[in-house]
Design a protein that fits this description.
heterotetramer, A: about 280 residues, alpha/beta, Elongation Factor Tu (Ef-tu), domain 3, Rossmann fold, seven-stranded antiparallel beta sheet, seven-stranded mixed beta sheet, B: about 325 residues, TIM Barrel, eight-stranded parallel beta sheet, four-stranded antiparallel beta sheet, about 30% helix, binds flavin-adenine dinucleotide, binds flavin mononucleotide, binds FE2/S2 (inorganic) cluster, Dihydroorotate_DH_cat (chains B, C), flavoprotein (chains B, C), pyrimidine biosynthesis (chains B, C), Dihydroorotate_DH_I (chains B, C)
Chain lengths: ~280, ~325, ~325, ~280
């Protein structure tokens, strides 16, 4: 199968700090080859005798053709797995599976797109911006975080985007507030045709609300806790409305992570909506 | 010379002893991206229910030391959609398919067995007995020998004689041998063990259970000692009954551990989440280990750790229920 | 301001909630090389038996993923030697001592309780119910509510009223709440859980069980999800009963997990083998975590994960026996 | 307490290969200070999120005063723990507890001692030889292993010992056979007054038999599987006859690892001798 994922044990080429984040570049030809913006990889953490069983998921930030193909991941330290990753050094090896997930769909015709990213969510947007610009699209960025050091990619956004608007909750960079506070203005100013967003569920909900108000399409990349990343464990489900109007609990790792925003029932994330297919209280379940 | 890896679930021959564990191999299609499903000893489906089920709310999983808690809640499309969209695909690929079934009442299990009866491409039926019995205040069938036996007997009766019925047991009972015996007396042709014992984790930051469902099933290497113990005890008590061993198998060594304890087949679950190639890898490793130890046939290794101890003082075995 | 860490086993106050787990702190002298035993919430002895016991043959331990199997077999000098040589030393050092007792018959437990009655320096008596009942084909007391209750009742009757009696439960039962309830009805003032579930490992090189005894008790972080679940279930059913939580505690976070599930004290076992300073470290870490979360008193955190969920959808709790 | 063990997180100074063995030198002042020949340390393996719970025990091969005190361990790769140790590099840290155990008792007066070591067991003998020589003792070595690359310390033994006899099972170095084959000759030639031995149980049994035949004292350091190393877990017991003639299951980590050879019931290791204190079949047990 052309697009199917592979497992690769890649050598770490470089590690660097970017403000609050760590970036790892890993040799992974089979994954770099197949990459499209929005794809993610999962990595094994903790080494051979680790007590950590589940792979950790990371958006592919960038791919390069060097060494047959490299991928770059950008991450913040959250728990034991990311702490282990942050300790990796050049020449260590990393076990990756990818590329995984449904990538961002691209517009057929040139148009204006606002790309919204919160914290490490921004990492997914630059390859996307590149692909959009190659199709002649105009790209505007909105990047946010709680504080200046956690805004990822502001410089690159400024280089690539027609406009770049930054927000921080503490006001240490850009506007004080959240991305959703400034988004209506950005959409209006740019006369945007579409929105892409990547970040926490709560932010995606807000972005979707704004896009729906403007009646423009919105593609969101969700971040739901994942045990396998390849579609076999059913732990990463979100309630999504299908083409037939029926809500199903669908896997973020395979049907997503990118969904049409208005199809995701954000208010019901973390529940089984009563009208979802197979919800309890139905005839048999 | 490589060892003969064929194994039998009752009279049904499998070309090799490495299976997927129920609920851990998706529909088969997902794993097929990585390796052929027909190279599995058998593909075991997630537990199929009569009606579609949306499962439990998220978060559905939490990592624990060398373990994984899950509360998926048997999400699935229901038996009709399964028969329409999933089983034919597996059959086309030449996979041997063990259909796992789950229900809330004896009637529901029986209805599932009836629905499956006569359908082509079903190698065996596995009864997931770790479902809450809605007629007994939600007590799971597997914790009650009599209730388990009743399910087994009625599924056995509804299933064509040439299709083996496998009863899948839980470790969190006071006496797994008693439940196993009840299931075999009820007509089970084979046993599978272990399903996940009930566990829980609490997020000390939110100060709430990590899983939306509160409790979940514990799987992975953390539970392997429980799995080995259950297989050992049941094989000792019922040496003639084929056992599919599972619980924390990640390598060929783990698989061999269960085989030596008495399993004639081994299923891989949680390890698939970490390594999508786990089944063929475990098989290859198991084959090498058997070869290194001079086995001509897998069958010769089954239960071998039970053999009376030789003269070496360090390997004397003196088994009691309790370790203390 | 630091949190008030005092806790109560029935009416007996402990200055802090971190105890050693029975059988994991030696006689106290060994740990005293590293830190003062009187700084423990309490020192819990290994299970003391009437007669001296040589225990099980070696190998007595096997490492498993994030776990440890042991089959020590209650090796100890017997109650007389304990009272002569071990308890006085602990008393001199100012340790609060919980004496764990183990027996093969109700009579033996009762005799132990009688022998301990009136002896100075005993803070509480803990009944290790995971011993095989020689009058019931070796079935362990903890797996049978009625047998457990009988032991508890007779130990309670033989023990001075000011000394709390703690019943220690095993997780490998179908319904830990039922056993807990039986013990409380039998007179237990507090409960301790979990003792080690029975596990096994097989050495794939010798192709024999790793432990001379065959099976052993599984401890360490691998079993923590079972411990949290047991504490949670029992606290939900019997909210007024003090619970000493244990099973895989290695850090203050682990201790807090058990506290949030409903334990008012926490015991550290296997972690002591890795870190002889584990008890004071866990206490310090727990204290810091409580402080960070704004608790004035440990007591306010006990069972807090049970509080009705707030409005946040992700923390809704919907508990059933089974996770599937 | 003067001799009590401490826990130290020490920096690895050097790592080197010595034939089939790895040697690690670790900064551990508190342990080096208190060291006496025969002491061991336990080390934590696998790193922070390791699935390996039990410490691994290693004889202290050598201590040096550098950096406030260093200890050197010598080990062969056996399983996952030693494989992890073999991967350590200089500047990594290692968590040690020690010094542990009962060290070798030294003779009061100058005498002739035969030191017998099998494989890594030999590592315990050089500090002992040094201590004996400082007391004016004559030292003769007998070192054995299955093959030449697994004989540890032959050169050093040749430098220190009055005589050094090597044995290998495959005959690739020294005499073909086992240490017990050559021991009687060495004892007779040296007119030895005492024997010290370190190695597997089976070899210690043989050495003890020889020493008893010669009617000279023998001190053996046993290697029994240990979970704690500090005397709290009771997993490391061996049947040993006490001064009162009673056999007890005693802890190799605290009462040992060094015992008087003739007191260890080697034939009964791995069992509970029927006449041991508290053996089953006794009145209550
Ligand atoms: C599709 C996808 C893409 C992601 N991309 C990035 C990225 O580019 N940069 C980045 O910093 N983070 C990203 N994340 C989040 C990242 O996976 C988590 O931060 C990481 O798993 C935390 O692991 P840990 O061991 O440090 O934390 P722990 O909290 O100790 O992890 C415990 C368990 O929870 C899971 N988990 C915890 N947080 C998350 C989370 N937010 N999402 C999914 N699983 C989680 C872990 O996988 C693990 O199984 C992404 C998540 C998903 C699902
Ligand atoms: C007092 C003492 C001193 C020792 N000194 C040395 C030394 O100087 N050099 C050296 O190479 N080895 C020495 N050993 C043996 C060393 O402890 C083991 O080789 C090591 O524990 C194996 O760990 P592993 O993870 O590689 O093997 P695994 O077999 O994977 O270990 C699994 C478990 O078994 C235990 N174990 C396995 N083998 C032994 C053994 N022989 N003794 C004790 N526990 C064991 C481990 O501690 C661990 O808990 C000594 C052992 C003892 C008791
Ligand atoms: C995510 C997940 C889903 C599962 N779903 C089922 C199921 O539907 N039916 C079933 O009988 N067992 C189910 N199980 C249990 C596994 O089949 C297996 O018995 C258990 O996980 C132990 O094996 P492992 O440690 O290799 O995972 C599930 C386990 C996991 C982790
Ligand atoms: C080596 C060892 C010996 C034990 N001995 C006893 C005992 O004598 N009595 C008892 O009630 N529990 C005994 N236990 C069980 C512990 O007290 C504790 O319940 C269990 O190990 C779980 O805690 P942990 O994971 O912190 O070790 C023992 C455990 C171990 C590991
Ligand atoms: S993470 Fe396993 S199905 Fe999505
Ligand atoms: S190793 Fe624990 S008592 Fe000896």
């Amino acid at each position: 199968m052309a697009g199917s994922p592979v497992q690769v044990t890649g050598t770490v080429l470089t590690t660097r700090r970017v403000d609050a984040y760590h970036a790892l570049t890993v040799v992974a030809p089979g994954i770099a080859d197949r990459f499209r913006p929005g794809h993610f990889v999962t990595v094994a953490v903790g080494g051979r005798d680790s007590s950590m069983l589940t792979r950790r998921a990371f958006t592919i930030h960038d791919v390069k053709p060097d060494y047959g193909g490299t991928v770059e991941l950008v991450f913040g330290v959250r728990g034991a797995g990311t702490a282990w990753l942050a300790d990796l050094r050049a020449r260590d090896t990393l076990d990756l599976v990818g590329p995984l997930g449904r990538p961002f769909p691209l517009p057929r015709d040139p148009c204006t797109c606002v790309l919204v990213g919160d914290e490490h969510g921004a990492a997914a947007l630059f390859a996307l911006a590149d692909a959009l610009q190659q199709r002649g699209c105009r790209v505007d960025f909105v990047l946010g975080a709680p504080s200046a050091d956690r805004v990822f990619g502001a410089l690159r956004a400024r280089r690539m985007g027609e406009t770049t608007t930054l927000t921080t909750e503490d006001g240490s960079l850009g506007m004080r507030g959240r991305v959703t506070d400034v988004l209506p203005g950005v959409i209006a100013d740019a006369r945007a045709d579409a929105v892409y967003a990547c970040g926490p569920m709560e932010m995606l909900r807000g972005v979707t609300t704004v896009a729906v108000e403007f009646d423009i399409p919105v593609q969101v990349a969700v971040e739901e806790s994942m045990a396998c990343g390849i579609g076999v464990c059913m732990t990463c489900v979100v309630p999504v409305i299908g083409d037939d109007g029926v809500t199903r609990m669908v896997r973020a790792c395979t049907e997503g992570p990118v969904f049409r925003g208005e199809r995701v029932r954000f208010d019901d994330v973390g529940t089984i909506p009563f009208d979802a297919l197979g919800a309890p209280g139905g005839r048999h379940a | 010379m490589t060892a003969d890896l064929r194994t039998y679930l009752a009279h049904v021959e499998l070309p090799n002893p490495v299976l997927t564990a129920s609920g851990c191999g998706g529909t088969g299609r997902e794993l097929a991206q990585f390796s052929d499903v027909h190279r599995l000893g058998a593909f075991v489906t997630r537990s199929i229910t009569m009606a579609p089920r949306a499962g439990r709310p998220t978060p559905r999983m939490a990592e624990t030391p060398s373990g994984l808690l899950n509360a998926v809640g048997l999400q699935g499309p229901g038996v009709e959609a399964f028969l329409e969209r999933e089983l034919p695909w597996l059959a086309e690929r030449g996979a041997r398919t063990v259909v796992s079934i789950g229900g809330g009442t004896v009637t529901e299990y029986t209805a599932l067995a009836r629905r499956l009866a006569g359908v082509d491409g079903i190698t065996a039926v596995e009864i997931n007995l770790s479902c809450p019995n809605v007629e007994d205040r939600g007590r799971v069938f597997a914790r009650d020998g009599a209730a388990a036996a009743e399910v087994v007997a009625s599924v056995r009766a509804a299933t064509p004689y040439e299709v083996p019925v496998i009863a899948k047991l839980s470790p969190d009972v006071a006496d797994v041998v008693a439940v196993a015996r009840a299931c075999v007396d009820g007509g089970a042709d084979a046993l599978a063990m272990i399903n996940t014992p009930v566990g829980m984790s609490i997020d000390v930051d939110t100060m709430r259970p990590s899983l939306a469902a509160g409790t979940g099933g514990l799987s992975g290497p953390a539970v392997r000692p429980l799995a080995v113990r259950c297989v050992w005890q049941v094989h000792a008590a019922l040496p003639g009954v084929p056992i599919i061993g599972m619980g924390g198998v990640t390598t060929g060594r783990d698989a061999l551990e269960l085989v030596l304890a008495g399993a004639c087949a081994v299923a891989v679950g949680t390890a698939l989440f970490h390594d999508p190639y786990a089944c063929p890898r475990v098989l290859r490793e198991l084959e090498e280990l058997l070869q290194e130890r001079g086995f001509d046939r897998l069958a010769d290794a089954v239960g071998l750790a039970h053999r009376p101890a030789g003269a070496q003082p360090r390997t004397r075995t003196d088994l009691e229920e309790s370790s203390l």
